[in-house]
Amino acid sequence: MKTFHTHWFVWLSRSLAILFTAFISLFALDAFQPGKTWQVIALDFLIHLIPAFLLIRVLILYWSREWIIGIVLILLGITYLIIAFEHLDWVLIISGPLFLMGGFFLISWFIRVHKL
User: Fold this and answer.
1) Model-level pTM greater than 0.90?
2) Taking burial as the number of CB atoms within 10 A of a residue's CB, which of 51, 66, 77, 99 is the most buried?
3) How buried is residue 59: exposed, middle or buried, by Cβ count under 10 Å (0-12/13-18/19+)?
4) Phi and psi dihedrals of 114, rounded to 5?
5) How many angstroms separate the Cα of 42 from the Cα of each of 9, 25, 60, 116?
6) Residue 10, class by beta-carbon neighbours within 10 Å (0-12 exposed, 13-18 middle, 19+ buried)?
7) What digits encode the pLDDT tens for the residues 92-105?
């Protein structure tokens, strides 16, 4: 039988991941700038959506395997930390939630496996 905190962590982690995916999708709106052709805008828009597509794919493929999603999110956070290290404000906005969500997914998996 699932307890309240097990159910809470399961849906908190998933909800945050979906909201974060929507948040990073907003950065794709940067592609719409005056003076660009529609082909360039479309290509820029799709390139900006690659991280969101990656997260959606991970969530769909491993929805019931929390430990995989947790590890992937933490690795993505580390990767972004390395790539954008000179912009610490960006790192906090992107990597911070990735680490938090990864931790929530791992806690959710730990609680489910150990039936706490």
Assistant:
1) no
2) 66
3) middle
4) -90, 5
5) 38, 14, 25, 48
6) buried
7) 999 999 999 999 99
What is the total count of domains within the chain? Answer: 1
CB-based contact 58:69 (threshold 8 Å): yes
Across the chain, mean pLDDT equals 89
d(CA 77, CA 37): 33
Q: pLDDT of 49-97, one tens digit each?
A: 999 999 999 999 998 889 999 999 999 999 999 999 898 888 899 999 9
DSSP letter assigned to residue 64: T
Q: How many residues does the chain have?
A: 116
Alpha-carbon Rg for the chain in angstroms: 16
Q: Which domain holds residue 100?
A: 4-113
The encoded tokens of residue 114 equal 């150990």
Both tokens of 29, joined, read: 């709106």
In the structure encoding, which two tokens stand for residue 8, read together?
A: 């809470």
